[in-house]
Amino acid sequence: MACIAACITAAGVTAPAWAAGPPVERIVVPYAVGGVTDLYGRVLAERLQADQASPILVDNRPGGGAAIGTAYVAKSTADGRTVLLGSVGTATNPAMIKSMPYDPRDIVPVAQVATSPLVLYVRADLAQDVPQLLAHARKAPGGLSFANSGVGSSPNLAAALFARQINLPVTHVSYRGTSAAINDLLGGQVDAYFDTLQAMPHVKSGRIRALAVAAPERLEQAPDLPTLDELGVPGVHASSWWGIFVPARTPQDQIKDLQVRLRKVVGEPIVQQRAREMGAVALFRDQAAFQQFFDSEVTRWSEIIAAEKLSGQ
């Protein structure tokens, strides 16, 4: 090997600078193929793979509000080779699920890699604005029906928070991933859905309407879209976010190496661009900052889950 390296150097060719730690072999996505989590996971796999000598498998393991895929990683060998692309469901599982298939202490955050505030979308024939939507909700038996991409997912929690703030009932309709949820909204089977900006092309085609953003401020990508705060429904702030987790026993030096690699990948222009195309923002938070954010999400949403009686699996 030393001879080969010397020959390459002598020939004026630079050998690839492979990652210092063990290669990532598997990124587990605890949601179905086709959603933002899956698509972003594939972007991360592609770019992480560029600095290691072996391929990375994107392993979709949907179901159980992300618990199935998370349990797989929690019980995996703690060697940095198998990682989880977690999201809000990772924070809410302990409050949502009575019989957890894993111990939450068996996974630890490594870094946050993206975020995206949610937008309130409705059927095009349902309402033109939030006041009309609320008027419809007051008259409809059972209130509004809200699609979500899984129990405990960010759309599910956003709808629960929205119902709490407007003091009206809603019917939660759960799907195995984003694609199935948005398809039923497009087909008129459900009334509304909180989703990222990825659904905006359907708004432009006239198939659904975007009424407001569930964030404290308007979005740079959609400046004409008002916040729910502006429209008299305060405090409905919800976002999808994504982060990398590993088994808790993973050596800290391997976690640090993976963190360095993720910081580099998230900062790449191609990753920033691909995230924008998905309606997200490629955002890096190191382990300490991500742990603090993650803990705040656990506390915040656990209160909503208990208040709205969403748990029970």
The CATH superfamily title of the largest domain:
Bordetella uptake gene, domain 1
Give the oligomeric state of the chains in this entry, treating copies of one chain as homo and distinct chains as hetero. Answer: single chain
CATH architecture tag of the largest domain? 3-Layer(aba) Sandwich
Rg from C-alpha positions?
21 Å
DSSP strand content: 15-25%
Look at the structure and give the mean pLDDT: 90
Domain unit count:
2
Helicity range: 25-40%
SSE pattern = HEHEHEHEEHEHEHEHEEHHEH
Q: From the helix content, strand content and strand pairing, which structural class follows? A: alpha/beta
Measured between the Cα atoms of the first and last residue, the distance is: 54 Å
Unreliable residue stretches = 1-17
Largest sheet: 6 strands, mixed
What is the CATH fold-level name of the largest domain?
D-Maltodextrin-Binding Protein, domain 2
Protein name: Tripartite tricarboxylate transporter substrate binding protein
Signal peptide: 1-19
Family: Belongs to the UPF0065 (bug) family.
InterPro entries: BUG, Bug_dom1
Structure description:
The chain is of the alpha/beta class. It has eleven helices and eleven strands. The chain has helices at residues 2-10, 36-49, 67-74, 88-96, 130-139, 154-166, 178-186, 200-204, 252-266, 269-277, 287-308, and strands spanning 26-29, 57-60, 82-86, 107-117, 119-123, 144-148, 170-174, 192-195, 208-213, 239-247, 281-285. A six-stranded mixed sheet has the order 2-1-3-10-4-11, with helices on both faces. A five-stranded mixed sheet has the order 7-6-8-5-9. Strand 6 (144-148), helix 6 (154-166) and strand 7 form a beta-alpha-beta unit. Mean pLDDT is 90; it is low at 1-17.
